[in-house]
Every structure is written in structure tokens, then in C-alpha cells.
Design brief:
Layout lengths: L2 H5 L3 H15 L3 E3 L4 H7 L19 H13 L18 H16 L4 H4 L4 H8 L6 H20 L4 H6 L5 H9 L7 E4 L2 E4 L2 H12 L19 H8 L3 E3 L1 H8 L9 H22 L7 H11 L3 H4 L12
Antiparallel strand pairs: 1-4, 2-3
Helix pairs in contact: 2-14, 3-14, 4-5, 4-11, 7-8, 10-11, 12-15
């Protein structure tokens, strides 16, 4: 397959193929494929979590809810910084951010595309209850400015129009968002570009879950949303095996470098493992899509067993 052929494919297919390619060459991370059938069989049937009004905008018109989903997923990163932010009682880093965005939209109205073009870190910090000097606030502001600029210039300032531009196709929505800096997420491994686009893909899934595009097709073509939590769960559950050096680094709480071979291998192995799990479930009575498996593993990772063990940490704008 030539590079041009690869680049012409939908983003989600490129993620899938590149992840498998990395896993074949990985030096620090391996999938224990012998465990796949039993683990796949043990996964629960798909059961979307009930909406939580504390961290989701459930009311308002379609434009407001579309703005909420796209804005929140644009800044759905920062896990490497979570130990350093002010978390709300009983909320993780992600849910602290989600609660702040929800309250901002509910109390002051949605961010507009025109308003986002000029948004500053102080405004983000005020909404999220954080220190305006925290580096993550500047990253959030830069991402939201890019989002606002694209929505304003290319979609008439309408977030709902962004969704409509995909014409009911989840992969097409991913492709659209993946072309914006706000959703950028590619790495390089052994000289080859490796796309992940965690946030672009999860945005498409969230659009479907929120009912913003009732006829949204091909959600099953999305891959796992490559972050640091799903690999952590798969490691503790025995599906991923790490070499001793990488294990020691993670257990010591040392940050991984974004784009390093080890970090790319962790993300790619999680994507590929979820693909194998989805394939193992496909022939049974309760098949699961990669996105559904990702959700099950992510929710599992919120449990005490997984929180009590150091997980891979990396500071970046991808996840």
C-alpha cells in the first residue's frame, strides 16, 4: 500500500491500520493474544451510562448542545496534568473540567464561535475554577481559539452546522475535525506517521450519544479512543505486557515523553487490543463495537483497583 493510498482512507481506518503496524514492530509493549477470547467473553453487554446533568448539558436547543459537545471534546486532554489541578470533590480531572464547562454554559450561555476566537486562559480558568497561570489553561485557550476560528469561517458560526456537514456519517465527521489543529493527534514511529485522533473520534461518538445526529451512521467504524487509561486497564488485566524498563518508569510516576516509542506503542497496543476484542465478540450473541469496549474499559479504570496503581502519564494536547 502506498502512502497516498493510506492517506486517502478515512481517518479511523488509518488509525486502525497504523496501530496494527506499530504493534507488529513494538519493542516495549506486547499484546497477550492468548487472553483475548476469555477477556472478550467477560466484557459486559453495552450499557451506556445514564446522563449526568452535573457534567453534561442536557437542556437547551440543538445549537447549544452541539457547541457543548464540540467545545468539551476539543479540550478533552490534560490527563498528564490531572495531579496538579484543583479537582472538585469526588470528581476526576476530566469530570472537573466537564463540570466547569457545563456550569459555564448553563449559567452564562454557550460559548460562541466568534467569542472563542479571542478567548484567553483567564476566561477558561474562571470557568473551570483553576489557576489562570496553569499551563493547561493556555493549551485549552489555544485549542478553543482554533475551534472557534474554523466554526466561524467555515460553518457560519454554527456548531450544529459542523455536525450537519458530515451528512450523517461518523467517519466523515472525524475526517472533518481531524483537519483542524484543535483536534490534531498524530505521532511518528520508526519514520512513519501514526494517527490516533482520540478527540476527533470521541467527538463523533458523543454527537451520536447526545442525539445531535439521530441518523449518524458507521459508529462501529470508530476505533478505541487512545489515551493513557485504557492501556493502564489492559496492563493490570494482563492483556498488555510491558518490558521491565517501561514498567519501572510508570510505577515510579515518571512522565513519558509524548511521541516517544514507548508512549506510541502503549496507545497503539490499546487500539489493536480493542480491535481484537471486538473481533472476538463479533460472532457471539452480544457483539461490541470498539467504541463500546473502550467505554467499558474507561469506566472500569475509574475503580479503586486501577486508581490505586500508578498509570502512564504524559503531558500533551492529545489526551
Amino acid at each position: 500500500m502506498t502512502l497516498s493510498t493510506f492517506e486517502s482512507k478515512p481517518v479511523s481506518e488509518r488509525v486502525r491500520e497504523a496501530a496494527a503496524w506499530v504493534v507488529e514492530r513494538a519493542r516495549s509493549v506486547a499484546i497477550d493474544e492468548a487472553r483475548i477470547p476469555a477477556y472478550a467473553a467477560s466484557l459486559p453487554a453495552a450499557a451506556p451510562a445514564p446522563p449526568d446533568p452535573g457534567v453534561e448539558l442536557l437542556e437547551g436547543d440543538r445549537e447549544a448542545r452541539a457547541a457543548f459537545v464540540l467545545c468539551l471534546d476539543a479540550i478533552n486532554f490534560g490527563s498528564g496534568w490531572w495531579p496538579t489541578i484543583r479537582k472538585r470533590p469526588g470528581r476526576s480531572g476530566y469530570f472537573t473540567v466537564a463540570a466547569g464547562v457545563t456550569e459555564r454554559f448553563r449559567e452564562e450561555g454557550p460559548w460562541t464561535a466568534a467569542g472563542l476566537v479571542a478567548i484567553e486562559p483567564a476566561a477558561i480558568a474562571a470557568a473551570l475554577g483553576q489557576d489562570p497561570g496553569h499551563p493547561l489553561m493556555a493549551d485549552f485557550a489555544a485549542t478553543l481559539r482554533d475551534l472557534g476560528a474554523h466554526v466561524e469561517a467555515e460553518h457560519g458560526g454554527s456548531f450544529a452546522a459542523v455536525i450537519d456537514a458530515a451528512a450523517g456519517s461518523a467517519p466523515a465527521l472525524v475526517d472533518l475535525l481531524a483537519g483542524w489543529d484543535a483536534f490534531a493527534d498524530t505521532s511518528t514511529y520508526d519514520g512513519r506517521e501514526v494517527p490516533f485522533f482520540k478527540r476527533a473520534q470521541i467527538a463523533a461518538a458523543d454527537v451520536g450519544r447526545a442525539g445531535l445526529a439521530p441518523e449518524l451512521r458507521d459508529l462501529d467504524r470508530l476505533t478505541a479512543f487512545a489515551d493513557n487509561l485504557v492501556p493502564h486497564v489492559l496492563c493490570l488485566d494482563g492483556l498488555l505486557r510491558l518490558d521491565l524498563a517501561l514498567t519501572a518508569r510508570i510505577e515510579a510516576g515518571r512522565l513519558l515523553e509524548h511521541g516517544s516509542p514507548e508512549e506510541v506503542e502503549l496507545r497503539a497496543a490499546a487500539v489493536q487490543a480493542v480491535e481484537l476484542l471486538a473481533a472476538a465478540r463479533a460472532a457471539g450473541p452480544a457483539p461490541l463495537t470498539p467504541a463500546e469496549i473502550d467505554a467499558a474499559l474507561w469506566n472500569r479504570g475509574r475503580g479503586h483497583r486501577y486508581k490505586s496503581v500508578p498509570r502512564p502519564r504524559c503531558r500533551n494536547t492529545a489526551y
